[in-house]
UniProtKB/TrEMBL annotation:
Protein source organism: Actinoallomurus vinaceus
Domain of life, source organism: Bacteria
Gene3D superfamilies xrefs: 2.40.30.130, Threonyl-trna Synthetase, Chain A, domain 2
Names of required cofactors: Zn(2+)
InterPro entries: Alanyl-tRNA_Editing_Enzymes, Thr/Ala-tRNA-synth_IIc_edit, Transl_B-barrel_sf, tRNA_SAD
Protein name: Alanyl-tRNA synthetase
Residue span, Threonyl/alanyl tRNA synthetase SAD domain: 187-229
Length: 238
């Protein structure tokens, strides 16, 4: 492929745009691996930042998006159980692209709820140490710093969990807007109203009332870290 292919990260601009008629920006591959295709108007979130990749399709072929280290593009690899490939596509071709909308909304809900739990943890004096937003294993980890002693017993951790739950419920009741903007250094910063701001390249809901079933399932201590496990879903779209 040649250099200079342009790709727009549509998934960062609109979480809810899950199908688009786009154009092939580039194709690639080697003799011993299947060809990949990159789309100019890219609606596919690649795995990263603790968020899993979207499930998607180009035409009828199921594809797996991934960030290509060489080109920096989000490229689509065929993962079709019917054996369909992307081999016939060429730069400039028009393609129908779509992602699994239900899974997109679940990922966005889990990711946004993760930010919200991060904010609630920071309010207790904890420092963010890691985030995983995968369905079924979503958790936010913190270093507790000087508050570690107050988390020693199970009843202490349950009290901490209740404080988190109260803050989370309050922010959802306030329906804080979720926005993204570039900061002075060109980073994308995601905000939950005035409650929270963090650099992030994931997909998010529009405002916190889009979240449903945000549940903090456990607060545990693991290797000196506070691990807050949670589940969340997206409110049904009207
Ligand atoms: Zn985020």
């Amino acid at each position: 492929m040649s250099d200079g292919h342009h790709q727009t990260a549509v998934y960062l601009e609109d979480t809810y745009l899950t199908a688009i008629t786009g154009h092939v920006a580039a194709t690639g591959g080697t003799a011993d691996s299947a060809a990949w295709v990159a789309v100019r108007e890219n609606i596919f979130h690649p795995q990263g930042g603790g968020q899993p990749a979207d499930r998607g399709w180009l035409g009828e072929c199921e594809v797996a998006p991934a960030r290509d280290a060489e080109t920096g593009l989000v490229v689509l690899h065929p993962r079709d159980d019917q054996g369909r490939t992307l081999g016939d596509l060429a730069e400039g071709d028009v393609v129908a692209a779509r992602v699994d909308a239900d899974l997109r909304l679940l990922h966005a809900a889990l990711h946004t709820a993760g930010h919200l739990i991060e904010a609630a943890g920071r309010a207790q004096g904890w420092v963010l140490a890691g985030s995983i937003h995968f369905p079924g294993q979503a958790r936010i980890e913190f270093t507790p710093g000087e508050t570690a002693a107050s988390l020693a017993g199970p009843e202490d951790r349950e009290k901490a969990a209740d404080r988190l739950r109260t803050r989370v419920a309050s922010a959802i009741a306030d329906d804080l807007p979720v926005t993204a903007e570039q900061d002075d250094e060109g980073r994308r910063v995601v905000r939950l109203g005035d409650l929270h701001a963090a650099p992030c390249g994931g997909t998010h809901v529009r405002s916190l009332a889009d979240l449903a079933d945000v549940t903090i399932t456990a607060v545990k201590m693991k290797k000196g870290r506070v691990r807050v496990s949670y589940t969340a879903s997206h409110r049904p779209l009207k």
